[in-house]
Amino acid sequence: MEFPPAAQQELARRRLTVRGAAHARGGAGERPTRARGAGLDFAEHRPYRPGDDIRTLDAAVTARTGQPVVREYVVTGQLPVLVVLDAGPGMRLHPRKWRLAQGLAAALAFTALSGGDRVQVVTAAETTRASGWLQGVNRAAHLLGFLGAVRPGARGSLPGALAHPATRAPRGTLTVLVSDFLHEQVPGALAGLPARGQEVLAAQVLDPLELDPAGLGRGVTRLLDVHGDEELTVTLDDAARRAYRAALADWNAALGAQVTRAGGRWLSVDAARPLEQVILRDLIARGVIR
């Protein structure tokens, strides 16, 4: 897929942020881990234990306190980042929503890869596909090619993808979800992620017609449930549009509260906005990346 060079340059010097549950693990990465040992950056002192390397003894502190004390250093590693992109029928129905969702998933995955993290992308269409775990900025072309080859399908959903073995990521993973989050089973699917030890970053992308159906006109309209293949006949008037907007606001508020209660982050963007604007105003300005 095409990814604006200016956006690549901006994101290449940025890093994804985490709030707590997600943490770096082993591997040749740049992020501080919870482990202590040999390293360059001093972390803390602790009492000497039999078997410790005597070269780690801090002579000055030991002499001052009369107790043998060793120096410990920060061990760096890689943050596991799982990016799950909804490529189901809700995306197929709105091409500009799909383009922004695809670009947003690429931006977040590229940022992680550039920052030395381990990244896997999973796409949810008729078949759930996984890129495998990638590391190193030299794998960016493979990652972007994987995402660019995805097309929205007539089946598939975010809840279905989260039940797939490919999304059973290690504890401490930052799980990035890019979807419209309009499937009725989404709350239940999200509820299982904290128990897996995953920190969630939920990025909702909605088409302007989903945000406000005024563009559909007035009068009797047939609506199709893309996930259930059911048709609903409604009369679109001012009252119906107000009720719809209120219901969508309540749905999003409940999902946002669910995600934030579990220590995650929620953001919602309008698919009419260009990707570069979303990167600057939603990702960077709100501290999702820094």
From TrEMBL:
InterPro entries cross-referenced by the UniProt entry: DUF58
Q: Where is the DUF58 domain positioned along the sequence?
A: 44-250
The record's Pfam families line, in alphabetical order, gives: DUF58
Which PANTHER family does the entry link to?
BLL2464 PROTEIN
Q: Supply the name of the protein.
A: DUF58 domain-containing protein
What species does this protein belong to?
A: Deinococcus grandis
